Amino acid sequence: MRIGIIGAGRIGSTLAGHLDRIGHEVAISNSRGPETLSGLVAELGGSVRAVTAREAAEFGEPVVVAVPYGAYRELPAEELRDKVVIDTCNYYPERDGHDPDLDADRTTSSERIQAHTGGNLVKAFNAIHWEDLRDRARPPGDPERVAIPLSGSDSQAKAVVSGVIDEIGFAPVIAGDLGGGGRRHQPGTSVYGALLPADETSALLRAH
């Protein structure tokens, strides 16, 4: 697949390395311009190419969004509309500023991003620390394979993202729809940061 990544921090660059390794075409961007990504591209050592955020959105299907939540309004909404968008973001009020609706749990960060982009949003990769995403990939059937929860309201989009998670060496576990499901694996939940197999992760998600 052609996969665009908006955000070249730890999660975005780690995913770029995994996806390139298994043969996907990857284009990655940051907020400062592609010329500032030459070091990362050289470090990844594959065929990942640096582009602008708008170009990454146009290029990819799906498109990974790996920016601080507070910057989501800068995402190129027109280019993301109707695409599968993988939302790795978390709301941290000390970093992003307080949002009264999120603080009161009237909505979620993913629903905010979906409303802005108009994409078929799937929340994933938000509950795993980047070092574990880098180091804990395992082949299918390995008893130490770590689960990654995902949530979304479009079944086809969830199938695409589940396939990506499985391909890079983790076990996809669907938590539910974008709102209710996403709440089950946001910061502060029992699965956030947990390194558990699929059955244990599923049990914890059901308990919420």
Name a few traits of the molecule.
8 strands, Rossmann fold, 8-stranded mixed beta sheet, 208 residues, 11 helices, alpha/beta
What does this structure look like?
The chain is of the alpha/beta class and 208 residues long. It is 40% helix and 17% strand. The radius of gyration is 16 Å and the shape is globular.
Write the SSE topology.
Layout: E1 2-6, H1 10-21, E2 25-29, H2 38-44, E3 49-50, H3 53-59, E4 63-65, H4 77-80, E5 84-87, H5 93-96, H6 100-103, H7 109-117, E6 120-124, H8 130-135, E7 147-152, H9 155-168, E8 171-176, H10 178-183, H11 198-207
Parallel strand pairs: 1-2, 1-4, 2-3, 4-5, 5-6, 7-8
Antiparallel strand pairs: 6-7
The largest beta-sheet arranges its strands as 3-2-1-4-5-6-7-8
> What's the CATH class, please?
Alpha Beta
Structure summary, number of beta strands? 8
> How much strand?
15-25%
Largest sheet: 8 strands, mixed
Provide the CATH topology.
Rossmann fold
Low-confidence stretches: none
Instruction: Indicate the percent of residues in helices.
Output: 25-40%
Order of helices and strands: EHEHEHEHEHHHEHEHEHH
Instruction: Give the CA-based shape.
Output: globular
Query: What does the average pLDDT come to?
Result: 96
Number of helices: 11
Overall number of structural domains:
1
Distance between the termini: 34 Å
The Rg value, from CA coordinates, equals 16 Å
Q: Which structural class is indicated by helix and strand composition?
A: alpha/beta
By CATH's scheme, which homologous superfamily applies?
A: NAD(P)-binding Rossmann-like Domain
| CATH architecture grouping | 3-Layer(aba) Sandwich
